[in-house]
Specification:
Number of strands: 9
Shape: flat
Order of helices and strands: EHHEHHHEHHEEEEEEHHH
Strand content: 15-25%
Helix content: 25-40%
Low-confidence stretches: 216-233
Mean pLDDT: 78
Length: 297
């Protein structure tokens, strides 16, 4: 079951103001969205578009790591111990990096606010995600040149052609070998009942792993991030997770996005930053920028 967090009262207020719906109608819509996400979202799923019914809701996904770091920063600010946090920054950087490379973190989905139903909603959405993207460029450690080198089609024989699909498993600490889900391509189109996993190494070796995988049966996953219909081969250890997992921000990044956006848009719902939040934003920026320099170029 997915970890869903919901800024319920704020969203309900926005629904009533922007869509002129009654409180009971708004609550029913929100409950339906949350129930669908909890019941249907697979382990490595993330928000790429915001969920919509009659109301369009902004959703953000992140990996649950670093909450303690954020809370320690906040406590230090309140106790006027900011200098001690700066002195201990190397330790916080190591903790941040440890979480970033962790393959077993829970994925959380946060329902943040409701978009206005007018044409301006597109511009508002673009501004929200532009601010997020600028801060999250460091959180995409999958090198562009490596992504470009991935094979999109695999020819096994004159009558056997496989095409790579959306699932790619990567071990972030050792990116020299990846695993891809492929489906059989026929003259009639993609045959989704025939699936195979191929491994691909940095020196160009491409090999099938295991037997053909039958068509997907919707069952609970055997472990976090492991799709039951797409059993990874024995060579694919638990440290391998999908691209979708590795490119998710951590909780530290999520908090940084929130504060950064409020600094840029002080007239929005939560208002301008207070003194403590300004200091917190400064500390989080120092932490993330220092950690960014440790990622491979």
């Amino acid at each position: 079951m997915a970890n869903i967090f919901c800024n319920q009262e704020h969203i309900l207020q926005q629904i009533q103001e922007r869509y002129e719906l009654k409180d009971t109608e708004g609550r029913l819509l929100l409950e339906r969205v949350v129930a669908a996400l909890k019941g249907q979202a697979p382990p490595d799923w993330r928000f790429t578009q915001s969920p919509a019914t009659q109301v369009k809701i902004l959703g953000v996904s992140y990996r649950e790591w670093g909450r303690e770091i954020v809370e320690e920063f906040q406590e230090a600010i309140q106790a006027d111990r900011v200098a001690a946090v700066i002195a201990a920054l190397p330790q916080y950087i190591e903790a941040y990096m440890e979480g970033f490379y962790n393959p077993d973190l829970a994925i959380c989905h946060d329902l943040v606010t409701a978009y206005p139903p007018v044409k301006g909603e597109i511009g508002e959405k673009k501004r929200l995600f532009a601010a997020a993207k600028e801060q999250l460029e460091h959180a995409v450690p999958l090198q562009a040149r490596k992504l470009a080198a991935r094979p999109n089609a695999i020819v096994v024989g004159e009558d056997e052609l496989w095409v790579r699909q959306h699932l790619n498993w990567v071990k972030l600490r050792d990116p020299n070998k990846e695993f891809y889900l492929c489906e059989r391509l026929t003259p009639q189109g993609i045959d989704k009942t025939q699936r195979r996993i191929f491994s691909y190494t940095s020196n160009g070796n491409l090999n099938p792993e295991g037997e053909l995988i039958p068509g997907c049966q919707q069952k609970p996953p055997k472990r976090a991030g492991c799709y039951p219909c797409l059993d990874k081969p024995s060579a694919c250890s638990p440290e391998y997770r999908t691209d979708a997992y590795w490119t998710l921000p951590t909780y530290v990044d999520r908090r940084l996005i929130d504060l950064d956006f409020r600094e840029r848009q002080p007239d929005k719902d939560d208002g301008p930053l207070n003194r403590d939040e300004v200091v917190e934003l400064y500390l989080l920026r120092r932490l993330v920028q220092a950690a960014r320099r440790k990622f491979p170029s």
